[in-house]
Write a structure and sequence with these properties.
By secondary structure, this protein is an all-alpha fold. The protein has one domain. The protein is built from 6 helices and no strands. Helix 3 packs antiparallel against helix 4 and helix 4 runs antiparallel to helix 5.
């Protein structure tokens, strides 16, 4: 009968494993809370469209197209395209950054959120000339 690899090597420090798992759970909880807040703000700002829930947006896109509301359909299609573009950009960034890809993708997301928050604080006269 063979023993598992850690048992064969001798005792390992299980305390470090528990700390690592706890740290991972805390990070997952914080990131989930942040994603929920960002989605709620986007939902309120976009009048019922989701930032992270594309199946709901694709349903609303189909409804807008069915009702021939092309302006609403264009807004929803733009949101879906930006979501896909963001996912692709995250994948490209992960491919360039190697072993620490998750860290760099999270830094990229944090920078984009910071830029969005800063732009959201600008007076409306600054960005109204672009139609927003």
């Amino acid at each position: 009968m063979t023993e598992p690899a850690d048992v064969a090597r001798g005792s390992t420090n299980r305390g470090d494993d528990v700390v690592d798992e706890a740290r991972g759970l805390v990070l997952a909880a914080l990131l989930s809370a942040l994603a929920g807040m960002v989605d709620a703000i986007g939902y309120l700002h976009l009048g019922g469209l989701f930032i992270s829930f594309m199946s709901g947006n694709s349903t609303q896109l189909a409804a807008a197209l069915g009702q021939r509301d092309l302006a609403e359909a264009a807004t929803i299609a733009e949101l879906i395209a930006l979501f896909v573009l963001g996912a692709a950009a995250g994948q490209v960034l992960a491919g360039f950054t190697g072993r620490r890809h998750m860290t760099w993708v999270l830094i990229g997301v944090a920078l984009l959120l910071a830029i969005a928050a800063a732009l959201g604080q600008l007076p409306s006269r600054w960005y109204s000339r672009w139609g927003y």
